[in-house]
Structure formats: structure tokens, C-alpha cells
Design a protein that fits this description.
Length: 264
């Protein structure tokens, strides 16, 4: 897909992977619609895109509130137009064991990424169906492939993103709308600063994979749209382990558990 003058909506666009993704689409000539909660950071990213010759419009919104999503969607359609590409990056959550996780924690982690992605996609998909054209990208983490100990609600929410993507692919199979799942291993992002103690719970097997930057993930997302790919796993070495997991799930799950967090 040629991205020039396309309207691309990116959630979680105020920092980290979302901001890098917005900038990457801006460099490709797309008009980027930026969604996230913090207005000042959104404006900063939008101005950076514009300063580099792109076009961008920021819309502060709490993506965990369905009514707020519906309202901002109406504003976007009136002021910018209908997005052709929807990229669901927004997400939150920390690595906690089941007994450490409150019911509110579990619901908060499911609200973003999953419910936010569902609400945003559902809001804009009627236009994609009317045109029989478009692309939806959902980002998730390696926890959606083989969950590790001490991350129950986080991993569940990332599996929900995987399930949502595969269900959406089935739902839209008779259309020309492409749905992509991007799965990334460890990324150096503000997530770790906002969730102290989580990084220490990554299985030590994760050290086999090179650390990704937000820009690495952003480039993979853009490439998936340009090339109309359905599944992207990064880095390359992670693809090998994911393939082995499909063929021999028990040994990989044993290894992830053996090298992961353990109760004292």
C-alpha cells in the first residue's frame, strides 16, 4: 500500500512505540492522527512530524472510555477524514503474579490494550468496509506467544490482542481489509520506567534476543502495511523460537518457566 496522503490513526502516540510509529508514518507522507491521553506530549510529537515535512493532528483522549472514543472519532471524521489505516499500539500493565493482582488491576490491564483496540477498530471499520479497503495493525508482546511466570493479567491482555487479531482476520476474510498482528520481544521504552520491578521478571531466555528500540518496532509496523503482511514477529531470532514453540510447545514453555520469575 502506498502511504502518501493516507490518513493513519495511531493510538498510544504520545511516547515510546506509538510516538515512533507516528513519526515513521509521517516520514512516509501519511497524515498521522495521534491519539493518547496526554495532550502536551501528543502536541510535541505532532510538531516534530510537521517540522520534518509531514502532517499530523493530535487528539487527546482516554482510550479506555468507550464514549470518549466515539466522541473523538466523530471529531476526527469531521476535521481530518476517515482513517484508512488504524494502528493499535496503546497499552499498559505491569508484571504481577495472581495473588499480587487486584480485580481493578486486571480490568485496567485489559482496558488497554484490548478494549481500547476493540473500541477504536469498531468505530472506524464501517468506513473501511464501505470502501472495501484498509489496514488494521495490532501490537502485542512476546507474552502472547508463551506467557512467563509472574505476569498473569499482563499476559492475559496480550493474549487478548492476539485473539482479537485472529478473530478479526476471520471476520474480515471476505474483504480486502488487511489485519496484522505485530509481536515484539523486549523493547527499550518508557514502559520499564513506569512499571518498576517488571523488567526483573522477564525470563532470562529473553537475553537471547537483541534489545529492540521503539523505532525498530515502528519500522516493522510500517513495513507490514506497505507489504500487506498478516503476522510480523521481531527480532528475527524471536521468529525462530516462535516457530519452535509451534512445533514443540512443551520444551519451549518449560524453558520459559524455568528461566522466569519464581516464588520465594
Amino acid at each position: 500500500m502506498n502511504l502518501t496522503d493516507r490518513i493513519v490513526l495511531v493510538t498510544g502516540a504520545s511516547s515510546g512505540i506509538g510516538a515512533a510509529t507516528a513519526r515513521a508514518f509521517g516520514r512516509e507522507g501519511a497524515h498521522v492522527v495521534l491519539l493518547a491521553r496526554t495532550e502536551s506530549k501528543l502536541v510535541e510529537v505532532a510538531e516534530e512530524i510537521i517540522d520534518h515535512g509531514g502532517t499530523a493532528t493530535p487528539y487527546p483522549v482516554d482510550l479506555t472510555e468507550p464514549d470518549a472514543v466515539a466522541k473523538v472519532a466523530d471529531t476526527i471524521r469531521d476535521e481530518v477524514g476517515h482513517p484508512t489505516i488504524v494502528v493499535n499500539v496503546a497499552g499498559s500493565g505491569e508484571f504481577l503474579a495472581i495473588e499480587e493482582t487486584t480485580p481493578d488491576d486486571a480490568r485496567r490491564m485489559m482496558a488497554a490494550p484490548y478494549f481500547a483496540a476493540f473500541d477504536v477498530t469498531r468505530t472506524f471499520v464501517p468506513h473501511l468496509l464501505a470502501r472495501n479497503e484498509g489496514h488494521i495493525v495490532n501490537l502485542t508482546s512476546a507474552a502472547a506467544m508463551a506467557p512467563w511466570p509472574g505476569s498473569v493479567a499482563y499476559a492475559t491482555a496480550r493474549w487478548a490482542m492476539r485473539g482479537f487479531t485472529e478473530a478479526l482476520q476471520a471476520d474480515l476474510r471476505d474483504t480486502d481489509i488487511v489485519v496484522t498482528l505485530v509481536v515484539a520481544a523486549e523493547v527499550e521504552s518508557p514502559y520499564w520506567e513506569h512499571n518498576p520491578g517488571s523488567r526483573e521478571r522477564l525470563p532470562s531466555i529473553s537475553r537471547l534476543f537483541p534489545l529492540l528500540s521503539p523505532e525498530d518496532v515502528a519500522d516493522a509496523i510500517v513495513e507490514s502495511v506497505v507489504e500487506s503482511r498478516r503476522t510480523v514477529l521481531i527480532p528475527r531470532r524471536f521468529r525462530v523460537v516462535a516457530t519452535l514453540h509451534r512445533l514443540f510447545p512443551r520444551p519451549i514453555e518449560w524453558l520459559v518457566g524455568k528461566t522466569g520469575w519464581r516464588r520465594r
